[in-house]
């Protein structure tokens, strides 16, 4: 066995809560690295092109292939790649031993302890007892970590971990385990019966996704920037860090070497945000049956990452799996893109979409009918609203109309001096859309990769409202259900939260008017099963937010443009806009849409938008986001500006 110590200096591994990463130290005698064990470990060398330090180099596809491999995540530090290189040599042995079946990083730590000269500083006392690790009192200041008991992965003081984990990870024949909520589904299910997450790997691989084309997406339609961002793939990335290639045995082990890696990377890792797929509108009852919102439950993987007590704490306010049958709401975290973006041929946005046009060009998307357990029906066409939604739905259904909608407001401009926008009452009816061709599901293919999309941002920035509104516009929330939310929220004197109620399901969340747990919803695009992770914005629930963020492939950062609220969110001493952006990036998310919400509250001021864009952009670049991976969208979730369709208010046209 080749010991990593042959190639690397002794390594001290610190385990710590992700928010407490200190600066690693390196001396001539040893190196240090800080690991956040419950989070995602970026396996090295799985695909060289993904090994840019700033990139997310491993996605869930790989995890799933490795049968729910260890969850371990390293902070990006100068030393990270030392561990990566080390792991490149170690991983084949891991796979051989099937230790990747285990759920936590302890096996890695144990392995390194046993087979290398690494000095392992494990901050979990019980494990220290079990493994006999040395403990250095110098690091007592990490005692906070011990508060997070939910990080316990089953390793008891009696060293029964392996047996426990083996039992946990064992899936009975005829079942498959959801990677998100860990529910054991019947083999016939393509989606998790509890949380709706796409089965991966699929039971029926179907046609090669590469054979699908998505040409012409959004070209002519009135689709907004938000929708387009969801369709778009980011620019191709160029690796800038040399990588030690994996031994052949490892690539063989994980499923066919390059073929697998290519496949995994295509579907999961690197390049594309899925083509956006709108479910075909359907009658209320069908919608009710099709859609559901669920919180990630204590049994779910997300809670594995939360501090101890959170699972229990949130159990009371968490929608249990059964709630799926009674609640039609679906959490959607969306990106907003303006129609204008569609027609804009200049500037960054155009560049972005030029860069990201691969998917768009190829997409003839198709939406929403991929779920085998869903019932599809012909869209109803008799429920058109007289409200704005109708116009938007019309423009969504027929791209040509979007221009006329826009041109009808040509006299307006994005200027604060033009005054506050005319208040528009929340829409009361469900728009029924006639889906465009690109919205329709890919009937030819039956396999979709999964894209996890997190919605993050400061408390009260409008994340849930934006999500609920989008779901409504997309026909994912029925008219009947929306009326119910409106009625109930008004009865509680919280009428403005009607859309948020689609996501904030628990009594406590509704009472307090804040999201407390991550809401999960989904929708399908032609090639992707998009899982929406609606994160709480209150700082008290950062661990919950993290639990969602660690799953994310892409994110929408919602910024409240209101005077005072924006500044608070960006405050260095607790602004959650800042913290969420940092966290999202540190968890490997590099594609982000900044949704500058509540533009109505600042009179759709272009100056305000530009100010926020400049300041937040600067901060995001500091966080490590690349300019080309950031998309900016001014919008008003409440007034339905720049969501699914282009803004009807010219002041929002950039
Ligand atoms: N004026 C205006 N108010 C909005 C807009 N979007 C949301 N709001 C209001 O902002 C308040 C908070 O909205 P939420 O959707 O609950 O915000 P959130 O970010 O989900 O809140 P947390 O999940 O608790 O962080 C509600 O009263 C909404 O009505 C908008 O576009 N314009």
From TrEMBL:
Transmembrane segments: none annotated. InterPro entries: P-loop_NTPase, T_Tr_GTP-bd_dom, TRAFAC_GTPase_members, Znf_RanBP2, Znf_RanBP2_sf. Residues 312-428 are annotated as: Disordered. It holds the Pfam family GTP_EFTU. Residues 448-654 form the Tr-type G domain. The keyword GTP-binding applies. GO terms for molecular function: GTP binding; GTPase activity; zinc ion binding. One of its GO terms (biological process) is translation. Residues 369-381, 402-418 have a biased composition (Low complexity). Keywords: Cytoplasm, GTP-binding, Hydrolase, Metal-binding, Nucleotide-binding, Protein biosynthesis, Zinc, Zinc-finger. The keyword Metal-binding applies. SMART domains: ZnF_RBZ. Its main location: cytoplasm. Residues 172-201 form the RanBP2-type domain. This is Uncharacterized protein. It comes from Carnegiea gigantea.
């Amino acid at each position: 066995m080749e010991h990593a110590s042959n190639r690397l200096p002794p390594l001290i591994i610190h385990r710590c809560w992700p928010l407490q990463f200190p600066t690693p130290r390196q001396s001539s005698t040893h190196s240090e690295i800080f690991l956040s064990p419950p989070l995602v470990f970026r396996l090295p060398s799985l695909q060289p092109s993904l090994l840019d330090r700033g990139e997310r180099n491993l996605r869930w596809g790989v995890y799933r292939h490795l049968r729910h491999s260890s969850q371990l995540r390293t902070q990006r530090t100068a030393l990270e790649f030392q561990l990566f290189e080390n792991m490149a040599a170690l991983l084949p042995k891991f796979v051989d031993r099937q230790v990747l079946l285990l759920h936590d990083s302890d096996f890695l730590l144990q392995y390194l302890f046993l087979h290398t000269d690494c000095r392992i500083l494990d901050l979990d006392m019980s494990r220290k007892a079990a493994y006999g690790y040395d403990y250095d009192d110098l690091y007592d200041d990490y005692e906070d970590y011990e508060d997070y008991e939910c990080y316990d992965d089953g390793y008891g003081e009696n060293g029964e971990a392996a047996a426990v984990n083996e039992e946990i990870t064992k899936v009975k024949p005829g079942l498959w385990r959801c990677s998100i909520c860990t529910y054991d589904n019947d083999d016939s299910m393509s989606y998790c019966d509890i949380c709706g997450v796409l089965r991966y790997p699929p039971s029926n691989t179907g046609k090669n996704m590469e054979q699908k084309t998505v040409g012409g997406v959004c070209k002519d339609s009135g689709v907004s920037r938000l929708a387009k961002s969801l369709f778009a793939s980011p620019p191709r990335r160029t690796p800038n860090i040399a990588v030690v290639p994996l031994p052949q045995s490892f690539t063989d082990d994980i499923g066919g070497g390059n073929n697998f890696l290519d496949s995994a990377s295509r579907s999961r890792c690197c390049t594309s945000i899925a083509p956006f797929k709108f479910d075909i509108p359907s009658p209320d009852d069908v919608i009710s049956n099709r859609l559901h919102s669920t919180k990630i439950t204590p049994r779910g993987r997300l809670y594995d990452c939360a501090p101890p007590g959170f699972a229990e704490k949130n159990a009371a306010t968490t929608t249990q799996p059964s709630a799926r049958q009674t609640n039609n709401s679906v959490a959607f975290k969306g990106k907003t893109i303006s129609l204008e973006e569609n027609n804009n041929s200049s500037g960054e946005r155009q560049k972005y979409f030029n860069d990201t046009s691969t998917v768009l060009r190829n997409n003839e998307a198709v939406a929403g009918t991929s779920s085998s357990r869903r019932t599809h029906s012909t869209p109803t066409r008799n429920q058109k609203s007289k409200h704005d939604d109708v116009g938007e739905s019309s423009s969504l259904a027929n791209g040509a109309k979007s221009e006329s909608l826009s041109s009808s407001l040509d006299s307006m401009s994005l200027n604060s001096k033009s005054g506050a926008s005319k208040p528009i009452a929340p829409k009361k009816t469900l728009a029924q859309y006639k889906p465009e061709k690109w919205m329709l599901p890919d009937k030819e293919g039956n396999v979709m990769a999964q894209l996890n999309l997190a919605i993050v941002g400061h408390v009260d920035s409008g994340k849930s409202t934006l999500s609920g509104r989008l779901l409504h516009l997309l026909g994912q929330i029925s008219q009947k259900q929306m009326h119910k939310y409106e009625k109930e929220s008004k009865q509680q004197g919280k009428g403005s939260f009607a859309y948020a109620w689609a996501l904030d399901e628990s009594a406590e969340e509704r009472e307090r008017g804040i999201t407390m747990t991550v809401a999960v919803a989904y929708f399908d695009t032609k090639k992707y099963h998009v899982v929406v992770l609606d994160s709480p914005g209150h700082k008290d629930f950062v661990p919950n937010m993290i639990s969602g963020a660690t799953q994310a492939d892409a994110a929408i950062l919602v910024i409240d443009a209101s005077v005072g609220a924006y500044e608070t969110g960006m405050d260095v001493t607790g602004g959650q806009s800042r913290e969420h952006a940092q966290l999202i990036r540190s968890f490997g998310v590099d594609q982000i849409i900044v949704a500058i919400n509540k533009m109505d509250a600042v009179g759709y001021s272009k100056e305000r938008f530009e100010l926020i864009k400049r300041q937040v952009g600067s901060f995001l670049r500091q966080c490590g986001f690349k300019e080309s991976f950031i998309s900016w969208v001014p919008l008003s979730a409440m007034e339905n500006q720049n969501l699914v369709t282009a803004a009807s208010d010219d002041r929002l046209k950039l």
